[in-house]
User: Fold this.
Amino acid sequence: MSAWARDRASGDGETEVTFRGRGLALRSGTRLILLVCPLCSQRNAQRGAERGICEWCAYVPSPEEAEPVEAGRG
Ligand SMILES: [Zn+2]
Assistant:
C-alpha cells in the first residue's frame, strides 16, 4: 500500500470495504475510493482511486457490493 493510501486508511470517518471479498476501497460517506480493483486485482493509481474508477480496466465498482472489512477475525 502506498503512503497516500495508508494515510487515508488511518483517517476518521472512512470505512475499509471489499467487493465480495475482492479488491479494497475506502468508503467515506457516499464516496468510494478504489484502492485495489476487485476485477483485475491491480493497485489503483491515486487519480483513478479518488474517482472510484480502476485506472487499469476502467471498472467502476457498485457501492451496493461494498462490504465492510471485518477486523479482528481469525
Ligand atoms: Zn481493474
Q: What stands out?
A: The longest strand covers residues 22-28.
